[in-house]
Amino acid sequence: MKAAEDQSQFKKAVQEARQFKKKKWTPSQKKEALWGLLFVSPFIIGFFGFMFLPMLFSFVGSFTNYNITSRMDFIGLTNFRRMFTQDELFTTSLYNTAYYVAFNVPLTAIGSVFLAVLLNRKIRGIRVFRTIFYLPAVLSGVAVYVLWMQLLSPSSGLINTILSWVGISGPSWLFDPQWTKPALILMRLWSVGGAMLLYLATLQNVPKQLYESAEVDGAGFSRQFFHITLPMITPIIFYDVVTSTIGAFQIFQEAYVMTEGGTGGPANSLLFYNLHMWNQAFVAYNMGYAMAMSMILFIIVLSLTFVNLKLAPRWVHY
Amino acid sequence: MKTIKVRTLLKAGTWCAAVSLILAACGNGETETGDNTTTDGESDTQGQVELEFWSFWGSGPRRDTIEEIIEEFNDTHDTITVEYVYQPWGDIWTKALAAIAGGNAPDVIVQDINSVRQRADANQATNLQSFIDEEDISDSFYPQLWETVIFEDEAYAVPFNTDTQVLFYNIDAFEEAGLDPDSPPQTWEELEEVARTLDQGSENDWEQIGFYPRWNIGPDVWALNADGGTSWFDEEGNVTIHTPEKVDALEWLLDWQDYYGRETVTQYEAEFGSGVADPFISGLVAMRGQNINYYTNLRENAPEDFRFNVAPLPEREEGSGNWSWGGGFVLEIPENTSHPEESYEFIRHLTSTEVQEQFGMNSFDIMANVEANENLAEHAELDETGHMIYEMAHQNLEQTVITPVPLHAPDYHSLINTQIDAAFLGEKTAEEALEDAQNSVENLVEQNQ
Hints:
heterodimer, A: 318 residues, mainly alpha, MetI-like fold, 14 helices, flat, B: 449 residues, alpha+beta, D-Maltodextrin-Binding Protein, domain 2, 2 domains, six-stranded mixed beta sheet, three-stranded antiparallel beta sheet, 19 helices, 47% helix, globular
C-alpha cells in the first residue's frame, strides 16, 4: 500500500520535472535568470577555479606518483595500497586525529552551550563578560600557540602552578606523549567563544512563554534546560557539531607550530593527519601520495557528515 | 509555514557549510601557490639582466652583510643587477617549490644542504656541471659539503655555509670544581666523570648540572659519533640503524636520563630560555654540546667576564674518533630560469674566498669555503675568541659528517624518532627500539624503490 503511494508520488514528481524542462521561458524570465547567474558568477567562477578543479586534479593525482615538478605517471591504486598496508605513520596520524576529533567536538559543543547559558542572564555588566569570553575567538594563530606553550610549561607554567596550589603535581603536557593531545584539546577550549556567540543568539530567540508556562507548572531550572532550552537549540547544536567535526579533522597549525616545524612531537603523538599529509607533499615531494591521503580524508569526512545528517531527524527539533 | 522555511534554510546552510569546508580542506594543497607577484629577471634592450635572489636572512648581521655584498656586486657588474628578496624561514622553500612548479621561480635561492639530491632528482634545480667543467671549484670546499651537491656525478648547487657541533664549557665552573680548563674531556667516560665533578645539588634541585648529552645534541649525533661517523645510512645507502655501536650510544644516553631522572630533565628543558636566560650563560649548565655558531649567542648575551672554551665532541672510546655532525645551506638555481649564466656568476661571487670571508666575519657563520675559514682563524679584525672559534670549526670539520636525505627515504626522521622516544619513555630497550627503527626504515626504503 505504502509502496504504491510512494511510487505514484515519484511518478508525479518526474512528470512535474519534465514539464518544467519543457516549459518555454518568457523573455523576462530568461533575463531574470541571466541576471541571477551574473550575480552568482563570482562564486561559481571561484568555486570552479579554486575548489572544484583543484579537487578534480587531486582526485586524478591520487592515482599517480606526482611529485610537483618532474613526474606524474599513472600508478593505479599503489598509493592507497601503501597507505593501508605499509605506511606506519598513516595509521598513527589517523589515530591521533580521530582521538582529537572524538574529544574536541563534544567538549567544545558542551563548553560553548554551557558558556552561552551562563551569559544569557540579565545581570549587570553582562556585555563586558560576553566580550571577555568572545575575545579569545578573535585572537588566534601562532602567537596564541606560543602563549599556550608557556602556560603549559611543566614547572613554571601557569596551569601546573595552579594545579600545584590544590596539591596536584601537573603532567609534563607537551613533553609527555600521554598528555600532548589532552593539552591541545584543552587549549582549543579557550576559543569556544565563537560557537558561544551562535548559541547565545539562538537562546535569545527561544520564546519566553515556554519558560513562563513551565514555571507555572513548577519546572525547575534543570528541567527547563533539558526540556525547553536544549530541544529548542538542537538545530544550532547540529550545525555546530557538523562544522566543528570537519574543522577538527583539519587540525594542522597547532601541531605544526607546537612541534617545531611539523616533526610530530614526542613519539609522534601530535602527528595529525594533515601534518603527515603536508610532510608527504612538501618534505618528501610525494604529492601523489598526499593527494591520495586527501581523498581518503574527504571520504571519511563526507561519510561522517552524511551519517550526521541521517541521524539528525532523531534528535534535532526544527 | 515559517517553521518549514527556517528548517529548509538551516538544512541547506548546514549542507553548504559542510561541503565548502570539506572542499576547502582538499583544495588547500592546490591553492597555495605562494606570492608570485615578482617577475622573473627581464632583459631590456641594453642587455641588462635583473636577478632575483631569495634567502631567509631577514635581520641582524646576516641581512646587513648580504645586502652589503649585493650592493658591491651590483656596483662592480654593469650588466647584472641583483635584487634581494627576504622570505621568512617557515615559507621560503614551500614558496620556492610553488614558484618552480608555476614556472616563475627566483634566479638564485638559498636551499637546505641536505635535500639537494631530492631536488635534482625532481628537476627543481638547474644542473651546474657545465659551469664546473669550465672551472672546477670543488676543491675550494670541504669535501663532505661538495659531496652533498652531487647527483648522478653532476653538481646541482654550490655549498654556501655550514656548521659543526662541538662542546662548549664554562671555564669558571671548571676552575671552581678544581678541574683543569685546558684539558676538556676526551672520551665519553671522561665526560661523565667531569660532569659528575661539576654537578652541584641533588634530585630536582640542581644548582649546576655538569652535562646532559641530549641538550642541543640529538641522539642521531651521538649515534654517529659512536659508530665511526656512520649515520643512519652508510655511504651505499644501506640502513645502518641497528648496529652494536649505536645500541651502545642509546644505552649510554638512557643512563644519563636515569641519572638525572626523566621528570627532572623535562622540567629543566622546558625552562630553558634564550638570551640571558640561556642555561649555559646563567650557569645552570656547565658544559653544553652545541652548533659552533652558538658563539654568536654568547657574544650577544653573555656578560663581559663570561669565560668559556670549545672542544671537539668527546669520542666513545680512545681512537673511535670525535665524530660530529653538521648541516648547512647551498646556493641553487631553480630549474627553467632565464639567466643561468648570470646567476652562476652571482653564485660564484658569493662563494669566492673573499666574499665568504666577509660574510663569516660579520655573522660568525662557518663558511663552506675552506680558505675563508682559514683566513678568518687569523683575521686581523677578529679578536682571539673569534680566531679560536674558526680554528676549532676548521679542525672539527675534518670529522664532521653531513647527512643528506636519502632519495629512497625522504621522511625517515619520524620513524626513527618514534622508536627513540619510546626508548626514552621506558617502553622499549635500546636494542628493541633500534631494531624496530631499522625494520621501519628498511620498509620505507622498500616502499620508495
